[in-house]
Amino acid sequence: MVKIGNIELPEFPLLLAPMEDVSDPPFRRLCKQHGADLMFSEFISSEGLIRDAIKSRMKLDIFDYERPVGIQIFGGDEEAMALSSKIVSAVNPDLIDINFGCPVKKVVCKGAGAAVLKDVDLMVRLTKAVIDGTNLPVTVKTRLGWDENSINIDEVAERLQDIGVKALSIHGRTRAQLYKGEADWTHIARVKNNPRITMPIFGNGDIDSPEKALEYKNRYGVDGIMIGRAAIGYPWIFNEIKHFVKTGEHLPAPTMLDRIEAAQNHLTWAMEWKGEWTGIVETRRHYTNYFKGIHNFKEYRQKLVTIDNAEGLHKAFDEIREVFSDYQFV
């Protein structure tokens, strides 16, 4: 069993990574349904929370069926991080996670996300401000370092644990790599094997199959794995990994009907949460992933991304269900 503060997770838990414009409640609901053990909100700007920005406030929405669930914040100002931790605590998530890993330019330019890797003293102060502002467990997600010449994850892990961080998720790339190249988990393993480190260490980066998850579990000894991009349009990956780790066998692949049901549920839940128009528009980006590699699907994909009302979309899904009910995946 893996513990984060008073949160008990199963042995070798699978975490859904916080992803901007992806990890919203409808998507998290699907991933929870298919085996995710711990999930996080999209990352939320501490400055946005304090300004009462509508988009930031909406990201605080969590639901009991998601638990345990964490809310992730980012920022580069101690006072703003401390105040935002109090705001987040008021909605009662199970934990607060701090993002010190986002490589996106607009975040880094504000001295937040992965930019903080260049100043570990600042990282410690920002983290301490959050810890002091809440009674919830505080965790951190970060990267190996700013670039290959400044990999400092060993120091980061020790210093964060020393001030009370309860778990650390490490993406096996530097900020300079963005999402290119191969994630290097040897650095993650070194942190995990450091006798000083007692908090759970979760690995992140490039896990896209049950085989790879089991291989990395055995090779690097991490406490669990965080999965991001591989879950987009494929929430089944969580239960597939769990089954393979336990039995060495594969679950049957999701059928076409399974995919249709997931995509339709995603749309329905998005409309319920965001309103019909926004739900329709923001779900469009997911259809390519749900129906990736399916022959003769272009016409139907075009319908899904152009129809602008709920009734028409549900009719389109019924048509897809009828036409592709016998579709076999090779």
Which value, in Å, is the CA radius of gyration?
20 Å
Would you tell me the overall average pLDDT?
Answer: 94
Spatial separation of the terminal alpha carbons: 37 Å
Based on the structure, what is the oligomeric state of the protein chains?
single chain
Tell me the strand percentage band.
5-15%
Question: Helicity level, as a percent range?
Answer: 40-55%
SSE run: EEEHEEHHEHEHHEHEHEHEHHHHH
Secondary-structure-based class equals alpha/beta
Could you give a short account of the major beta sheet?
8 strands, parallel, barrel
Number of helices: 14
- The counted number of beta strands is 11
Poorly predicted runs of 5 or more residues: none
Q: Strands of the largest sheet, in order across it?
A: 3-4-6-7-8-9-10-11
Q: Write down the overall geometry.
A: globular
Question: Secondary-structure map with pairings?
Answer:
Blueprint: E1 2-4, E2 7-9, E3 14-16, H1 25-33, E4 38-40, E5 44-45, H2 46-51, H3 54-58, E6 69-74, H4 78-89, E7 95-100, H5 105-108, H6 120-132, E8 138-143, H7 153-162, E9 168-171, H8 186-192, E10 201-204, H9 210-220, E11 224-227, H10 237-247, H11 256-274, H12 276-290, H13 298-306, H14 310-323
Parallel strand pairs: 3-4, 3-11, 4-6, 5-6, 6-7, 7-8, 8-9, 9-10, 10-11
Antiparallel strand pairs: 1-2
Helix pairs in contact: 1-11, 4-6, 6-7, 9-10, 11-12, 11-14
Give the tags.
330 residues; alpha/beta; two-stranded antiparallel ribbon; 13% strand; globular
Tell me what the structure shows.
The chain is of the alpha/beta class. 44% of the residues lie in helices and 13% in strands. It has 14 helices and eleven strands. It has an eight-stranded parallel barrel with strand order 3-4-6-7-8-9-10-11, surrounded by five helices.
